């Protein structure tokens, strides 16, 4: 709640006076909007000012809500998204109409693809001018309709606070996702004394928490009799705060676990049952397990094509138990023999309750362990060769605590970070999965920093290409003195494209090389952050130590081996079990 | 060792690994590769009860276009409940596609209930036909044959209205071709479940259902 102003404190020390400062009645639509956010427990929002959203910012002037001014609205959306991922409550971003709203679009689409709870509030030209092609007018609800869980066009100052409360509630309920409220200036400036009521989801919104008991019974029998059961945890497990239940289910039943990328951290990477993540660049052992399982128990995942590869060869011998809160995900991409619609943790508890015994999977567990030794993620890092990115990731991991948060952009660096960092906890891996948004990493690190506990380090592992897309947000990190460490794995390439060109386009490296990159360490210094450039193995540990010790934003420009490639790799549409371990196997 | 080899990882090559023989079809269903039967598209009538708010039609049509559901027609109109509208969609999809279309439709926030109508549902559509007016008697006879109405008649054109199920409309259009059809406007199918069955699950009538002075409702059986 709001800090009492010094004058108020001096005037009176009675409880009555304190209460009156906290419950200043709303006088207009904007104040109702901000009151709805306060009622929802929002502490931090990210945004950029602008004409049509100014009334809302004016109401923020008197609020206890902490606003972070971002350099670009895309950064505001990514920061809000990441804030929500780390915090477990919807992140909030503000933008003005027109370009402000369209700049949010990438970030909203990113949140939508990853089912991240987020609320975007956009200014709009006054209602009477809508449709006239007014200055900075964009049909924001039209533009964002396909990339939001739902969006709203506020039409009444009296109810605008309720609408914002509903949008916030809807974003975080059931299958999470981004919502947006478009706020015409006459509505936010319109007089109203109506306080927003308790936030509630729309009457039409329904979701099942418990799965149908007959379905649970059938699935329980299937799990009991499985000889090669495999759990596939998706991002929904973390979103449902069901990590402990999921771990318990795996351990109690002795069932090996693979994860999707958004689920990294659900099972500790170093647990004997954990085969890490499956899919295009997943571990060989995870992809072997997915290929040979006879019962795939998928929890909170949507069978994205980067996970399944070609559907024809995905888990081809397996019956599928699919637990998901969204019925539309059931049998969308992969047919579910045992559909269980409900909340991840609740349904896993239902299964535990229903099951009489664990499956007899001793041989299968041994097989999975054998695959771990057959397909090790080992790499060579000879001193006389350029710096290997895997080495840098491992060095960063070693220098940080178990609860350190990693954010990334998209590309090779993202895959190395996901492969070589040893994750132990949920909500410590913050990345752009479904949309694959280069430039996500730095603004996400800002959002993550504001949501994280003080003792959690925030490390952005970025690529040179991704960093160049949003590095203006360094100005925000400096202004707010945010303790984040950016590690750029710099190969002066759009590396994943270069890797694909070498593998699939006969090495014709069209528009993949930068030829020249700015000196990121000096660029960091120019922003007011600290910067280091590292070329040799013996400089790695010191630079990391200094950067982590610095209480503020720092950038380490690691000049890595430009020829380094990401393996294993399942080519697009290929069979997971035929993952390539090197380019000649593609 | 070449650099290329150092770039790779250790382990049995793809050819040295066991590979299961099972397959899935394009719907992700496990199949017997020898007797693979792909699903064939069928026509389904889906009825969606929605909150009649601005943009709801756009949400529905946008959903169908972005998810590439094949849609034959879409009609929309108010119901007995204030603020509710019924959208009737005719889609041509496989069973899996129809299932997805219904589920995705239900996920839209303004969607109250979604149901698929059985083959015995009552269905109707309306067509307006503007034909050449040289043979008014013959046009009138055909119009009568299809229990239609003449809405406009002049020296050069005659406009008639025919209602009925899709097949009847198709037949009528064929029959009018002899006169030379100048313009056609079709509404697309609208439909209700037969008898006591609610058209969408859980649907109940609003207050106006009990009103007796509602003469605006067209009864196609008259």
From TrEMBL, chain A:
Comment on bound cofactor: Binds 1 thiamine pyrophosphate per subunit. Binds 1 Mg(2+) ion per subunit.
Reactions the enzyme catalyzes: 2 pyruvate + H(+) = (2S)-2-acetolactate + CO2
Keywords for the protein's UniProt record, in alphabetical order: Amino-acid biosynthesis, Branched-chain amino acid biosynthesis, Magnesium, Metal-binding, Thiamine pyrophosphate, Transferase
InterPro entries for the chain: Acetolactate_synth_lsu, AHAS_TPP, DHS-like_NAD/FAD-binding_dom, THDP-binding, Thiamin_PyroP_enz_cen_dom, Thiamin_PyroP_enz_TPP-bd_dom, TPP_enz, TPP_enzyme_TPP-bd
Chain spans, region Disordered: 1-30
Gene Ontology cellular component list: acetolactate synthase complex
Acidic residues bias spans: 12-21
Metabolic or biological pathway: Amino-acid biosynthesis; L-isoleucine biosynthesis; L-isoleucine from 2-oxobutanoate: step 1/4; Amino-acid biosynthesis; L-valine biosynthesis; L-valine from pyruvate: step 1/4
Enzyme Commission number(s) of this protein: 2.2.1.6
Domain named Thiamine pyrophosphate enzyme TPP-binding: residues: 409-558
Pfam families documented for this protein: TPP_enzyme_C, TPP_enzyme_M, TPP_enzyme_N
Required co-factors: thiamine diphosphate; Mg(2+)
Domain Thiamine pyrophosphate enzyme central: 216-351
SUPFAM superfamilies per record: DHS-like NAD/FAD-binding domain, Thiamin diphosphate-binding fold (THDP-binding)
A GO molecular-function descriptor: thiamine pyrophosphate binding
Similarity annotation: Belongs to the TPP enzyme family.
Protein name, entry field: Acetolactate synthase
Species annotation: Halogranum rubrum
Automatic annotation (TrEMBL), chain B:
Annotated spans, Disordered: 1-41, 190-222
One Pfam family named in its UniProt record: ALS_ss_C
Biased composition (Polar residues): 197-222
GO cellular component: cytosol
InterPro entries the record matches: Acetalactate_synth_ssu (IPR004789), Acetolactate_synth/TF_NikR_C (IPR027271), Acetolactate_synth_ssu_C (IPR019455), ACT-like_dom_sf (IPR045865), ACT_dom (IPR002912), AHAS_ACT (IPR039557), AHAS_small-like_ACT (IPR054480)
Start-end of Low complexity biased regions: 1-11
Domain of life: Archaea
UniProt keyword Amino-acid biosynthesis present: yes
NCBIfam families cross-referenced by the UniProt entry: acolac_sm, PRK11895.1
Protein's UniProt name: Acetolactate synthase, small subunit
Organism: Halogranum rubrum
